[in-house]
Amino acid sequence: MTSGRRTPNDVYVPGHGDPRFGVEHYRLVLTCTLEGNQLSGRATLTARSVERLDRFELDLFGLRVHKVRVDGQPAAKYDLRRHKLVVRPRATIPADTPFTVEVSYAGSPRPMPGPDGEAGWEELADGLIVASQPHGAPSWFPCNDRPDDKATYEFEVTAPQGYTVLTNSSSTGQRRRASSTTWQFEPTAPMATYLATLQVGRYVQVDHPPAGSDVPVRSWCVPGRAAAVTQAFGGQPAMMSFFESRFGDYPFSAYSAVVTDDDLEIPLEAQGLSIFGANLVRRDWSAQRLIAHELAHQWFGNSVTIRHWRDIWLHEGFACYAEWLWSEESGGESADAHARSHHRRLSGLRQDLVLVDPGPDLMFDDRVYKRGALALHALRGHVGDEAFFGLLRAWTTRHAHGSVTTEDFAALVTDLIGAPAAASMEPWLNDPTLPPLPG
């Protein structure tokens, strides 16, 4: 079942989200049983209708629903089919009206399949991680799974004694029992559903000394890896300070890197933290560039978030360019050297990718990352460093904690620098053929 109204996100992540309402706040009360991989939860959503609703849909995958209440009253009817929880309230909700939904649910979570593979809840050898981009949020809580539907979150999580629980915000307290601990967390800044995360493991905290920024930077890992993580992730405070000088103030209160004791295929950012496998506890450039990449996503992706998945270059192109900037700052190859090397490589590949709408099959293609970074480097060469970095700081400031499109970025370029600068980006954004890189 679908909501009957299609959005641009339907092409990339089919069937997710209901555009007829928006969520303003999620309160998630969860109990995790690691043995047997069991989750029970109560999700309370504070929402507002966009249009008149005699029914609405939430995304939820692979879990049983026990109870649904709307504005404190049992729903007239609810039906869970595939990954859609269809709810009929007892009374029609008028347009532009606040309402609450409470869903009690349980089951054995598993990653949610999608066009680009599985995402979401994942068991570890000793613990669990949640990495939801782009469609995995319904694997662990009922939600309106759209990147443009940002809400604040409040978590209360019970896990077995001896395990650390991490989410998108700082813990405000713990209640210990004989065999479990309940962790409470402060409300988050607004975020998209795919950025909400839960990490459970036998972790210890590694604090990294500041390097010019007041933002607390820490890592979490199993005790036996603390010394290696201190070395491998010790450059993060310097990255933080440098990125603040280029991108503007860090948009959240703190930053954490969670390093699992398992190897992971790729790292992934969530809001306020990033997740890395043990295979990236290294000091070489191939690991350090990914550490820089995930940190840069806190500005480009987590605070300033795309409205539609087709604009994914606004996340990945910016974070990739941050890698090149950090390389230059830390004594490695210059950003220009990286740009020219990748331009030569991309010139020899198929010329069939349109950056502003690559299609679901190419959404995470490496060419989106590199061509997006090249578009930024070309703009920098066209307008100069002062105007370029001023533009990036204005972008992260004006759209902090908001949702954006490529058209918004082009409008800001026109507003701050001029129409010719915006026009210079057109071939990079809209032509399949890779443009020449300016000298």
UniProtKB/TrEMBL annotation:
Its cofactor is Zn(2+). One of its GO terms (biological process) is proteolysis. Residues 24-195 form the Aminopeptidase N-like N-terminal domain. It catalyses: Release of an N-terminal amino acid, Xaa-|-Yaa- from a peptide, amide or arylamide. Xaa is preferably Ala, but may be most amino acids including Pro (slow action). When a terminal hydrophobic residue is followed by a prolyl residue, the two may be released as an intact Xaa-Pro dipeptide. Residues 236-428 form the Peptidase M1 membrane alanine aminopeptidase domain. The keyword Iron does not apply. One of its GO terms (molecular function) is metallopeptidase activity. InterPro entries: Aminopeptidase_N-like_N, Aminopeptidase_N-like_N_sf, Peptidase_M1, Peptidase_M1_aminopeptidases, Peptidase_M1_dom, Peptidase_M4/M1_CTD_sf. Its EC number is 3.4.11.2. It comes from the Bacteria. The keyword Nucleus does not apply. It holds the Pfam family Peptidase_M1. Keywords: Hydrolase, Metal-binding, Metalloprotease, Protease, Zinc. Belongs to the peptidase M1 family. This is Aminopeptidase N. The lineage of its organism: Bacteria, Bacillati, Actinomycetota, Actinomycetes, Propionibacteriales.
